[in-house]
Specification:
By secondary structure, the protein is of the alpha/beta class. It is built from 16 helices and 14 strands. The strands form four sheets. The chain has a seven-stranded parallel β-sheet, sandwiched between helices. Strands 1-11-14 form a three-stranded mixed β-sheet, with no helix packed on it. Helix 11 runs parallel beside helix 14.
């Protein structure tokens, strides 16, 4: 996972100042104006909301599930096992005797009663900060390619060499970028008390608004300096002090503690995520160059005093899939016939390919039918390890569902990992992988989430991922956005299909999901642009949005044809 998502909206300021007889195609309409906590579960034709038609299926379904124990592995952060809406849905390894220090089921993992933390440490704690993958590549492949030109490279190493050059360029750009951002935060921390005290003279109750400060700034400014120049000159005139607080308010920093906390996090980004000499594997105690079992620990919900907790993301994802539908609390998950197997590999930074591969293999070996992977990165140092794990899952009829990413990029042109492509990323080679982009609840030109990645070849379909209300760590409920929350919608749908039609193959389930989606006949703004439009159908392979009702109907038809 990239640096904690709370950073996502801050960067710019600090650095630069259907019923059965209705068609399965929806035409553009006016935007939905009312938000709904579970808007994504609704049906367009019944509710005028472009959801996944889950409520419609539950309302009409009269059948009973044949398999009520579908295991879904969620490869992610840690999880809040104590959340009220996740009780009874966490996977239990019944072959393991809890806390006896013995690998009772001989699977290579001691006391793995609810899953495994591949980033757990030898001391019983957990890693919070991972290097970015491009930093690992610069560190490791630099030994082979540093200061060499392409003519000096053996043809068999050319792909690695080019990836090294791309990683080096990215590292240099990002290191400069984050270092400058950290400089801004350090300045903000140092100047904040002065700013606060100064403004208290004008606003004794400290109840000023951005609009009021903007008006004051225009009155008291003594020059037209940009933020960075003010910062570097350490300006302390009244106009500058007012502007510093405007910057804080614009990124929703209202207290000194908030500014200080973000400075602390950025310090770790620069000195850990981006540090070629930082090695998070030392505390884990494994050999990152060798695939092996048993490293890490069994604490998938771990709180250690003095260490930042990392349980939120998995909790949100798992709630979308299978939060209790019958307890009249919080939210209703997509399916109630699931057990969640939490597998931790995602500190802040980039996931390690070794952890991705071993988590997939663990999930397959321990009975998972579907694997949710709401994470991604720009580079992959050991893509072969991950591809081998994908093949292992495919051979065992296991579906992999991946979030397309939140970089507003065309992933046909910009590399994104993990993926289902061959070694040089030129050809799709697996039938058990679904890549999911994000849509909003607005049926207009902003239908595709502005953050969502897309790609006619490498994104399979879209699902709601904007303003999704779900479970959160600390026994709370919250609204978040991201393709991370689109993927579990597909996962929950696959689990629902298999719970009623267990004889379907993974290839059939994938095709059912893609073929049964809803088509939307309209143009949308291409993510990453302000006004460039394209037909929605051109942004993914299927050109559709997930539809549970249609998927379940199609699954029944496929089963009848098989018989």
């Amino acid at each position: 996972m990239k640096t904690f998502y709370l950073f996502s909206f801050l960067i710019i300021i600090f650095i630069g100042c259907k019923s059965a007889n209705q068609p399965n195609t929806v035409l553009e309409s006016s935007p939905v104006t009312e938000a709904n906590d579970a808007w994504y579960q609704k049906d367009f034709h019944q509710d005028n909301v472009p959801g996944i038609s889950l409520d419609k299926w539950y309302f009409q379904n009269k059948k009973k599930a044949k398999n009520k124990n579908i295991i879904v592995a969620v490869i992610d952060t840690q999880i809040d096992l104590n959340h009220e809406d996740l009780q009874g849905i966490i996977w239990k390894n019944l072959k393991e005797i809890p806390d006896n220090g013995i690998d009772d089921d001989h699977n290579g993992y001691i006391d793995d009663c609810n899953g495994w933390s591949f980033t757990g440490t030898k001391s019983g704690a957990y890693v919070v900060w991972n290097q970015y993958e491009y930093v690992r590549i610069v560190q490791e492949w630099g030994k082979l390619f540093k200061d060499k030109n392409e003519s000096q490279i053996d043809p068999k190493d050319l792909y690695k060499y080019k990836e090294y050059q791309r990683a080096l360029k990215t590292f240099e750009q990002k290191n400069k970028y984050y270092t400058n951002w950290l400089k801004s935060l350090r300045h903000a921390v140092s100047i904040y008390p002065v700013v606060k005290d100064t403004l208290k003279y004008f606003f004794p109750k400290e109840n000023y608004t951005y609009k009021q400060l903007d008006s004051m700034y225009k009155k008291y400014k003594i020059n037209d300096k940009k933020y960075r120049q003010m910062r570097d000159d350490n300006d302390k005139d009244l106009g500058a002090l007012i502007y510093y607080m405007m910057v804080c308010l614009e990124v929703d920093e209202k207290t000194y503690d908030e500014v200080k906390d973000r400075e602390t996090q950025l310090d770790s980004v620069v000195n850990k995520n981006l540090n070629v000499n930082y090695n998070e594997r030392l505390s884990i105690g494994d050999n990152p160059s060798v695939l092996e079992t048993g490293y890490g620990n069994n604490k998938v919900c771990n709180t250690v005093k003095g260490i930042r907790t990392i349980q939120d993301h998995n909790t949100m994802v798992s709630g979308i899939i299978s939060a209790n539908r019958n307890n009249n609390k919080g939210i209703k998950g997509i399916t109630e016939n699931v057990k969640i197997m939490p597998l931790n590999i995602s500190p802040s930074g980039d996931e390690n390919d070794k952890d991705i591969a071993m988590a997939i293999r663990y999930a397959v070996d321990n009975g998972a039918k579907i694997i949710n992977m709401s994470f991604g990165k720009e580079f992959s140092m050991h893509k072969d390890w991950v591809s081998d794990a994908f093949k292992y899952a495919e051979d065992h009829n296991v579906l992999l569902v991946h979030s397309a990413g939140n970089s507003s990029q065309n992933v046909d042109e910009n590399k994104s990992f993990p993926n289902d492509l061959n070694y040089d990323d030129s050809k799709e080679i697996f039938d058990n992988f679904i890549n999911v982009g994000s849509t909003t609840q607005k049926l207009d030109k902003t239908f595709v989430s502005d953050f969502s990645n897309y790609g006619k070849q490498n994104v399979d379909l879209f699902a709601p991922g904007d303003e999704i209300y779900t479970t959160g760590a600390g026994n709370i409920y919250k609204t978040e956005s991201g393709t991370s929350f689109s993927a579990p919608m597909v996962v929950g749908t696959a689990a629902l299909i298999w719970s009623y039609y267990p004889k379907l193959t993974v290839k059939e389930v994938k095709q059912i999901i893609l073929d049964s989606g809803t088509s939307y006949n309209m143009e949308v703004i291409i993510p990453g642009t302000t006004d460039k439009k394209i037909a929605f159908s051109e942004l993914s392979k299927s050109g559709k949005v997930l539809n549970v009702y249609n998927a379940m109907q199609l699954a029944e038809k496929v089963i009848k044809l098989k018989k």
